[in-house]
Amino acid sequence: MEKLVERISTTPYVSALVARRRFLFGAFVIFLILIAVSLTEKEDVNAWSRTQSGFSHLAAANGTNSNGSIPIQSSPLIPIGQGYKRPGYELPLADGIPLRIMAIGASTTRGDESFDNNGFRRPIREYLTSIGNPVNFVGTQRVGNMSDNEIEAYPGARTGQMHHHALDVVPKTKPNVVLVNVGANDCFQHWDIPNFYKRYYAFVDYLLTASPRATIVMGTLLPTTETERFNGSADVTVVNQQMHRLYQIFKNEGRPVVLADMTGPDGIQDSDLSWDGMHPTSAAYIRMGQILLRSMIEADARGFLRPAEPIHGVLQDGDLEHQDEDYGRWADEQRRLEAHRKKVEEQEVMKMTEELKRWTTSLEGSLELKKHEADIVPKLRRDSNSVDASNTILAWILGLLATWIQSNF
């Protein structure tokens, strides 16, 4: 039987049939691969068209951009990915929930030595509202020239004293973000520094208890160069070390607490302090605001930010609470003037764009003329060279003719 099968399989017809079946199977596999590749390429092209739909208007028939901008013919479009939009960058924090913020501390929290007495609150508020989060600062005091300027800050107050002030205001306002900057006066007054961390822990624990939906942003202390009255630089170093350890403890406990480290290479330096060696300059307050914002973005990324508890009489937007005040009316006028300025600027940009378009068109025309001239000059030079060569040959022939006439006549 085996010999019979072997003889049948070796016949020319059967061999050709087997080879043909193998060829068809291989062709079918290749066909499937080509289909898969084509589908993948189509999907990639569609994805590219979706991400780059905004570029379709750039190509114009005359080589200039249809929106009037200057054409860049030597720079082809490079595929750009959609990128990673982290919370707080172009997107509002926590899906745009209203942020009821309490800034609590002493004179640095108040913004002392800043040009407008808003300190770090102004840049924080401007950024958060620009990305879509309604903001209302809360507190029993009003400091600064912005309308939403409530705050809870007392110059010279130590951590324990600020804890006492919080007992009254926090249950009445229920902030969902608390910017804490306390401890500097403990250092300046050299108030039981070895046990500072116990007072700070009790303070933060109370804030989270009195406002259960709050996120605490712990701000470390700024450096100090003042040496004549307080000389607290060494104590600041000790307290900041305790704060870093406390933050690790809160983190281990799973508390909604983030650290805003004001030290380090990108923090506040000695050169950023004002004349008194204790408070930051106006520019340094802005940097403080940026550091605090980074910590709020981190809090959002970790899922800490939650809507504040409803409180009767506390609005979502702090500006609305004071829109009828003199400053509120002034702020409205400033916004109106800013809108007018932006409109004028847009018109000027459009005029400049049209002028650039005309200029580039004329420039292209002059380039075409120069190219035409560049093509004509070599041709004229070649024609001139041909004429010179012809004249040389003619003169040589005439010379030969004159020599022959002289020799024969």
TrEMBL record:
Keywords: Membrane, Transmembrane, Transmembrane helix. Residues 140-285 form the SGNH hydrolase-type esterase domain. One of its GO terms (molecular function) is phosphatidylcholine lysophospholipase activity. Pfam families: Lipase_GDSL_2. The chain crosses the membrane at residues 23-40. Signal peptide: none annotated. This is SGNH hydrolase-type esterase domain-containing protein. It comes from Neoarthrinium moseri.
